Automatic annotation (TrEMBL):
Protein's UniProt name: Cupin domain-containing protein
Domain Cupin type-2: 38-90
Biological classification of the source: Bacteria, Pseudomonadati, Balneolota, Balneolia, Balneolales
Residue ranges the record marks as coiled coil: none
A Pfam family assignment: Cupin_2
Superkingdom as given in the UniProt entry: Bacteria
Length: 107
């Protein structure tokens, strides 16, 4: 068993906050879930050193990506390129799965 598999099976993967949970990780890709993120207006725009691909399971949010705003609802997918300023405004209790490359929690 490799180190990443051991971390997963032993529950040692980090959690960044109460809504985000790391599901799995590899050397070049991470999988996480945002579970029941509550509505808010206080997330500051930021840039990341990883690319994110997501899929909405529940709720509603706005993705502010550069100058564009996209509404996200169940069944929608989205991409946040590396280095692009973005933020999310959660409008209804929100759950989404995201893959990040490289793994976000290692950045």
């Amino acid at each position: 068993m490799n180190t990443f598999s051991e971390e997963i099976s032993e529950g040692k993967l980090p959690k960044s906050d109460s809504a985000k949970e790391i599901l799995s990780t590899g050397e070049n890709l991470g999988l996480r879930i945002w579970r029941d993120e509550e509505p808010n207006t206080d997330k500051e725009p930021h840039k990341t050193e990883y690319e994110t691909v997501g899929y909405v399971l529940k709720g509603k949010a706005e993705l502010h990506l550069g100058d564009d705003v996209t509404e996200l609802t169940p069944g929608d997918s989205y991409v946040v390129p590396k280095g692009v300023e973005h933020t999310y405004k959660i409008l209804e209790t929100f759950t989404a799965v995201e893959a990040t490359s490289p793994p976000a929690h290692l950045q």
